[in-house]
Amino acid sequence: MKDKKSLIIYFSRADENYFGGEMRYVDKGNTEVIAEYIKDIVGADIFKVEPLNPYPKDYMECIEEAKVRTKEHNAPIKENIPDISEYDVIYVGSPIYWGGMPEELFTALKGHDYNGKIIRPFTTHEGSGLSGVPRQLNEICVGAEVLDGLGIIGSQVNNSKQKVEEWI
Ligand SMILES: Cc1cc2nc3c(=O)[nH]c(=O)nc-3n(C[C@H](O)[C@H](O)[C@H](O)COP(=O)(O)O)c2cc1C
User: Fold this and answer.
1) 85 burial class (0-12, 13-18, 19+ CB within 10 angstroms)?
2) What is the DSSP letter of 100?
3) Which residue's CA is the nearest one to ligand 1's atom 28?
4) What is the average per-residue pLDDT within 106-128?
5) What is the pTM of this model?
6) How do the domains of the chain map onto residue ranges?
């Protein structure tokens, strides 16, 4: 995998989050930590999907806002993903929001030509693992081959570089 032209597309939110029983403010989201490991290991290009309307910094408010966005299913993003035609492998990184991807990842990923692409999902979560993400990617990225994903518990991201390396 390391010699294929690769792009990492991910979503991640800093601010207040829940880490196995404890609320804490962080400067960098969990999925971003994993995305940066992959960048180090593979030398891939990297693109962060940013919501046009930032999620609340408060965790409980963020949970509620994500529920609303899931229902509306059209969350706008700041900037479209780069042209994917030159890449063989796309690593897609997502936190689990209500059992699946944040709405902004749907917006970012839909409507591109995935024929012949390999998709490698990775998630961070508080117990749900990959949850609905592989299924969602299969639905959006028609023509791509979605390979086995990697799910990492949010509070363990800082000790997970080796796991990421083994997965790659
Ligand atoms: C809106 C929201 C919904 C969440 N839903 C789930 C869930 O359904 N299952 C789960 O295991 N974790 C859930 N979590 C926890 C996040 O997936 C976890 O904290 C993740 O590591 C956050 O990634 P980030 O720091 O990159 O944004 C949720 C968190 C938020 C903010």
Assistant:
1) exposed
2) B
3) 97
4) 98
5) 0.98
6) 6-167
Ligand 1 atom showing the smallest separation from residue 29 Cα? 25
CA–CA separation, 65 vs 56, rounded Å? 8
Report how far ligand 1's centroid is from the alpha carbon of 126 (Å). Answer: 6
Query: Rounded to whole angstroms, how far apart are CA atoms 91 and 106?
Result: 15
Taking the CA of residue 59 as reference, the ligand 1 atom at the shortest distance is: 31
149's CB contacts (< 8 A; 6+ apart) are 120, 121, 122, 123, 130, 133, 134
Residues near ligand 1 with C-beta < 6 Å?
A: 12-13, 17, 29-32, 62-63, 66, 95-99, 124-128, 154
Q: 85: CA distance to ligand 1 center in Å?
A: 30
Instruction: Looking at the structure, give the CATH architecture of the domain made up of residues 6-167.
Output: 3-Layer(aba) Sandwich (3.40)
CA 25: distance to chain centroid? 20
Q: How confident is the model at residue 9 (pLDDT cuts 50, 70, 90)?
A: very high
The residue whose C-alpha atom lies closest to atom 8 belonging to ligand 1 is: 98
Cα(155)–Cα(157) distance, integer angstroms: 6
DSSP 83: P
**Ligand 1 atom closest to Cα of residue 100:** 8
Per-residue pLDDT tens over the stretch 54-64: 999 999 999 99
